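Same chain as my last thread, 471 residues:
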Amino acid sequence: MAQYEKQVKEILEAIGGEENIEKATHCVTRLRMSLKDESKVDSEKLESIDIVKGSFSTNGQFQVIIGQGTVDKVYKEMVAMTGIGESSKEDVKEASASKQNWLQRGVKMLADIFIPILPAIVTAGLLLGINNILTGEGIFFAESVVERFPQWAGIAEMINIIASAAFVFLPALIGWSAVKRFGGSELLGIVLGLILVHPDLLNAWSYADASAEGNVPTWNLFGFSVEAIGYQGQVLPVLVSAWVLAKIDISLRKRVPDSIQMLVVAPVALLVTGFLAFIIIGPVTFTIANGITGGFVWLFSTLPAIGGLLYGAVYAPLVITGMHHAFLAVDLQLVGTGNGTFLWPILALSNIAQGSAALAIMFATRNENMRGLSLTSSVSAYLGVTEPALFGVNLRYKFPFICAIIGASVAGMFITMNGVLANSIGIGGLPGILSIIPDFWLSFFIGMIIAVAVPFVLTFLYAKFVTKEKV
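reply #2:
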């Protein structure tokens, strides 16, 4: 018998048989399947299988958490035993998309655009964290490291340039990913993003002051005055422009003969999209984006305790639905203003809270398999990846998930009342402190203690003295 033949048979039986599978693939830790009828899944039976660490459904996909390394072997065994055939992630996404409503499709679209650029954002965030350590006052000395040791100033400046590039040229990254997602030429997407941050344009960060002084440069286009401003740190202008560019690109490639496509498609697509971006798309979406950002800023500055409490409470449930990806655009917009984001610090604390609740189960349970899963998943959550803790432990018992939300809410309320801001995003969990502006490190550290202690204590006490469920 093959190594995982028995477990694969049990998994197939628990999900309604191989005839219930439309498409199947896997990622680093999970089987990803598009099922014909998810109501046929016996979750209790599925999660009792020794190699299964949890399961959940999101964005039309049913996912079974197996674990790194093992999932690849399980998937190959499943393909060998059934007639489903190997599928790509895109095949499964397409099969799943037909079951989603318009909101789910919109969130999935944002996820498809932002997830590919996250490695660049995470790298930038880590490097900016190093720059924070070198330039922040009161960390090691009363003055900053570069003030105490001027010979380090050049190194700090170089690190800052390398780190901030991803945020300065963010529209180029989004342009590449968005145009690719919409089916156009990703190279044109990069060029579009660079056009929107061209150095000859008025920098977006200087727009407010220039507008107040009446010094905003303009173009005269057919008698109309068009502001010549860039869109540094903006998300919506490049997203909408990328969609327009992709549609024009696709339409022209269908109609222009192959022999002259190079001379026609790209120049026309970029020229038309560029004019539309500066004349219509940019001004309209810039106003909308600023309105959304202003709404969040108003809430968190006027009612910081309410804002922190609510976002801390809803973030983990948003992860379950996949809708947390929509807030990535808001975070990027807030970072793009140059002032920093108050949302990302709460996200990092939510990661820690879920990890702490899972860790408490390790001390409360008598099940050896669950103890091992709780420990490894809590470490993962502390490093910013909460899926194993969420779906493998906390949601399985439900009360750890609720205890984690309470901890994240209290911690979120505390840090927002103290005005904690991050100047970059991408780093979650305990390392998230590197993305925090050094002036707020103490407040964030106290928030981390809350996010560790409250879920751990509540979960442990509930498991030991309240619940009648076997843990």
